[in-house]
Amino acid sequence: MGKKVLVIGQGAREHAMVWKLKQSSGVEQVFAVPGNAGISQLAECFDVKPEAEPLLDLVDRKQIDLTVVGPEAPLMEGIVDEFEARGMKIFGPRRDAALLEGSKVFTKNLFKKYGIPTADFRSFSDIDEARDYLRERGTPIVVKADGLAAGKGVVVAADKETAFQALDTIMRDRAFGDAGREVVIEECLQGEEVSVFALCDGKTVVPMVAAQDHKRVFDGDRGPNTGGMGAYSPPPFYNQELHQRVMKEIMEPVVKAMAAEGRPYKGVLYAGLMLTADGPKVLEFNVRLGDPEAQVILPLMETDYLTVLEAVIDGKLDRTPISFLPRASVCVVLASAGYPGRYETGHVIAGLEDVSPDILVFHAGTRRYGSQLVTDGGRVLSVVSTGDTVAQAIDRVYREIPRIRFEGMHYRRDIGARALNM
Ligand code: AMP
Ligand code: GLY
After folding, report:
1. What Å distances lie between residue 81 and 90, 100, 195, 200, 306, CA to CA?
2. Please, which residues bridge with residue 286 across strands?
3. Ligand 1 pocket check: which of 284, 285, 288 to mutate, most ligand atoms within 8 Å of Cβ?
4. Domain 328-420, what fold?
């Protein structure tokens, strides 16, 4: 009998997870909470709260063998602890290890204690002391809310006014609630950004492929930050030598440090790095797959996804060979007009049936309205192609995108272009 697997989340990342699980010979059925219109074509979706009690109830009722968590919020709330306490299998870190993403103050102090390369910083719980430090340091400078702020808690300030304003927004106005009880103020780093992923079972660290995200809304990295407008893998500048160095200086030491602190790390470890003139430095850690990075990484995963998940959960990574295809992939996000600001929803999405079958279309903000598919979020679809090279994947994905239409649809035309100019 195959396994029954539950995926928690509703984005294109979770659609990619469900799609990948469906290819696994060991998987009998996939469920999702809450899922979306795309996921519902592959999995049975349930609109229950992503909290321990209703989820455990569903797991019981449907006899689910294994649960995978897409987004960070349930991990911070301790969903893994609750599942484990009931003897249920779940993929992801416990609450005390999810702090790597949940608290920047915790993480920066860990880096300091264990000598992991990162931007110089100070943390503050007193706004006046933080103001004094800003005056002393000058600009450019980076101001970060300690806790989760839906990607809006980081301000890279080119001038003093912006820096003080960021501090007021976070600490005085508490725009992100308790996430702003403390701030980290850190040195502004320069360089190429890369997202590095590894699987960890508490002891063993196995690298996945790296990717590059495109966070700004417009071509040429202009405009405000978004949840991510596209990604590609592998980044050409992230060569073997750099990879070895990142594993030795960052990924392995962090996993050792977490074990030494009594917070063994299990799950996907995602390092957002800046490749500076002084070597790679950590900007942030996340405790899950990235979105849109998952949409390019999972299509390149050669090993059966269920095997990978079970190796991590059961602590067998040292005995499980895990490989990725030596190919490339590119993901372009199709967004609603106005995103990341205000946007409308409910516009009909047309043309999906005309897209070539070798292109993957993962849904994010979509919903069924009668017989139609309509927009239901800022990021609507992730369109993904693989190829022998990044250039080939770019050609393929951009050739197919114009077949898809919805009112106000916009997307970046330069996803992966950096890889071609290097
Ligand atoms: P984070 O959520 O910490 O990854 O920050 C979001 C974005 O802010 C990153 O992807 C970087 O582009 C930028 N950023 C964060 N920290 C720094 C830093 N120390 N220097 C320069 N840019 C940064
Ligand atoms: N790609 C950014 C994130 O998932 O946080």
Report:
1. 9, 16, 27, 17, 21
2. 270
3. 284
4. Glycinamide Ribonucleotide Synthetase; Chain A, domain 4 (3.90.600)
- The topology (CATH level 3) of 126-181 is Dna Ligase; domain 1 (3.30.1490)
Listed in sequence order, the residues at least 6 apart from 369 whose beta carbon sits closer than 8 Å to its beta carbon are 346
Q: Please tell me if the CB atom of residue 221 comes closer than 6 angstroms to any atom of ligand 1.
A: no
* pLDDT tens series, the chain, 422 aa: 899 999 999 999 999 999 999 999 999 999 999 999 999 999 999 999 989 999 999 999 999 999 999 999 999 999 999 999 999 999 999 999 999 999 999 999 999 999 999 999 999 999 999 999 999 999 999 999 999 887 778 999 999 999 999 999 999 999 999 999 999 999 999 999 999 999 999 999 999 999 999 999 999 999 988 999 999 999 999 999 999 999 999 999 999 999 999 999 999 999 999 999 999 999 999 999 999 999 999 999 999 999 999 999 999 999 999 999 999 999 999 999 999 999 999 999 999 999 999 999 999 999 999 999 999 999 999 999 999 999 999 999 999 999 999 999 999 999 999 999 76
For residue 272 and ligand 1, the question of a CB distance below 6 A is answered with: yes
Topology annotation, domain 192-319: D-amino Acid Aminotransferase; Chain A, domain 1 (3.30.470)
Task: Report the top-level CATH class of 3-94.
Answer: alpha beta
CA gap 267, 74 in Å, rounded = 14
Listed by start position, the domains of the chain span 3-94, 126-181, 192-319, 328-420
